[in-house]
Amino acid sequence: MAYVLQSDQRGIRTLTLDRPEQRNALSDALVTEVDAALEGAGADPDVRAVQLTHTGTTFCAGADLRNPPDPHALVALMRRIVALDKPVVARVTGHVRAGGLGLLASCDISAGGPGSTFALTEARIGVAPAVISLPLLPRLDRAAAARYFLTGEKFGPEEAARIGLLTLAGEDVDTALAPVLDGLRRGSPQGLAESKRLVTATVLAAFDRDGDDLVERSARLFASADAREGMTAFLERRDAAWVW
Fold this sequence. Notes:
Blueprint: E1 4-9, E2 12-17, H1 28-43, E3 49-54, E4 58-60, H2 71-83, E5 88-92, E6 95-97, H3 99-106, E7 109-112, E8 117-119, H4 133-139, H5 142-151, H6 157-162, E9 168-169, H7 173-186, H8 189-222, H9 225-235
Parallel strand pairs: 2-3, 3-5, 4-6, 5-7, 6-8, 7-9
Antiparallel strand pairs: 1-2
Helix pairs in contact: 1-2, 2-8, 3-4
């Protein structure tokens, strides 16, 4: 079963996460499909840029706790987005949680509509946003990162734009993105690729320097007693044992 829909319009390849019944959670299969679709877009000379979007009310709910992806595969997917020699634009009209923010932050440009909400909920289930910190921390305002990494609070698109997670927030996400996509269509393939490399160089260096250490940290945290209790509480829709 395919979980990623693909369509082309005037040089823009749209990849649509299509697992709405699981809130587009990042399973092993979904991560593999998105990675393959991005590889295909990168190799297609008719594709000028990629737009990443979703069906349903959730862009991505983070890792699928029942069938999580290998952390190395998630890091490889985020790095693929950052390193792709074509711009990747995120179109968000729904909710984004936990690991989904890593997917979002890896994109070069992003827009969120009024129905979008965001939260880094890892600390609430006994872990930390370890591997997704690679693309997130270079984007986020430092004070905001400290707040939302620690509290797990939900915030909206205007706040997401203020702190650097989103590029644009608007009542109509397609209207907001129209000049962006038009601008990308006007860029030469070489010009876009080389301009993107200037912007992403330090992020890619962080992936290559810290990726393995953060995967190891993530694996250790997910194997802990706190994580077992936190994930069980989440799946049972109850407070974890440590909640006051």
